[in-house]
Amino acid sequence: MRLLCNHYAFTPTTTTNISSDRVTSTSHVLPPVSRLGSAEVSDKVIAGVFEAPIGMDELELKLPLEIVEVIIRAVDDSRDLKACALSCSYLRQVCQRRLFQNLRIDCDNDETAFLEGGLVYTIARTDRHVEVLSLIRWLRIENQYGGLGGQGGMDQLLGRFLTKLVALEALELRGAGLDWTRRELVGGLISVLQLPMLRELRLARLERFPLPLLLWGRALQKVGLENVLFMRSATSGPEVPLVLPSLAELKMDNRGMGLSIFGLHLLSSVLGRGAFTNLKKLHLEYRDREGDRPDDINRLLSVCQSSLEDLVLLLTHDAYSSAQLYATNIRLSRLTNLRCFSTRIYITTRDGYLEEEHPFNFLRLLLCECSPTLESIHLLCFHRFGDVGDPNAPEASGWTELDNVLTSMLGLREVSVVVCCTQCTLDQRAAHEGVYDLPMVRAREVGFQTRFTDNINTALEEWQQRI
């Protein structure tokens, strides 16, 4: 076993090739290797393995699967395992799923990948290890701060790397360090977006991203846009894409007039609207009210109103003060195939009084003319400043009105409520359970679930699981 480990312990930068089923044996006694990929051992191992054989014929060597598994388990560092697999095609074939199916490129903490001999550099500038590209199914690239002197060298290498991908199914790009003014990076993204197997694209915390590039994702089904600042004026690329996507799921927020720019670049043309006419699920967080208007929500919903089945809508606390305006622009009644609706509300009580009734007004106005196809409603409630929680608590009237509205929805099958009681005592939180109730809904044998917590992260996790 020690000899086999020594045979496979070398770095990917070596120019010596070993076939997948044959190695050259030598009579040298090699030092034990305590850890694959150790820098001080590698030189000795390479020298011992690749010197000319002394009086021995080549022996065919096929490693049993059990031995390969032992080798893989013995290596706890993924970089060392990748180094081994890049040089040994046999090991690469056996453990390809673990090694390269899910690949992460951290531009901020691993610049060696972009230097000579590194994975990105080697694939971008040479034809070595191109077989690895067919193994990559999911790729995440993160660059928060730029790198390599800030001269665009990293973006150029990433662009060339992306153009060589052949089997990617999901791509995730994160960080403001990615420079979208670099032609190589834009060209690389356009190239990978045209792959027929690419189904999912996630973008997070990008700066000045050219939004029309999304139209090049010919096979895209899911797109996620998290905290992305779009370029105000942008082109869709060197030419108009021949095949447009037909998205089934979109998750986005409206940072920096995101909805306005979205409408300008994608929804203002017949081609752009066509990418969203078959949308099934929309997760929209409307958190930036400086540049966008409620009408921008209406514009997006109008494009997919006949196909949308699942709507997650998150508004700011202040937005509920204009409940009538938002309810008019959202208009769930025109979503003819809507099956599930999820939203959050903020309930603020102080000294026995409900400070604002707007959240309940919003729900009542929104749901009273809801589509008859609606089957599930999921609410996330943040209750700030606790009260005694008795049946006469100020928020009780709001829940009674909501109970009346939901009772009239004949197609309703499920209602779930996650309540985060911040600044409430344990006794107050327990008393809330009698207030946050929908007795008439339960009487119709509609599934009703409530979950109370004083931890915001727990509330978000619970709600995320339900939607």
Please provide a written account of the structure.
The protein has 467 residues and is an alpha/beta fold. It has helices spanning 2-8, 39-50, 65-74, 78-87, 89-94, 96-101, 119-125, 153-163, 183-193, 258-265, 270-274, 294-303, 323-330, 358-367, 396-407, 426-432, 439-443, 456-466; strands at residues 22-23, 59-60, 102-106, 138-142, 170-174, 200-204, 207-209, 222-226, 229-230, 249-253, 281-286, 310-315, 340-350, 353-354, 376-384, 414-422, 447-453. The protein starts with a helix and ends with a helix. Mean pLDDT is 76; it is low at 1-61.
**Total DSSP helices:** 18
Backbone CA Rg: 29 Å
Low-confidence stretches: 1-61
Supply the helix-strand structural class: alpha/beta
Share of residues in strands: 15-25%
Distance between the termini: 50 Å
Shape descriptor: globular
Q: Total strand count, please?
A: 17
Q: Can you give the helix content as a percent range? A: 25-40%
How would you sum up the major sheet? 13 strands, mixed
Overall mean confidence score, pLDDT = 76
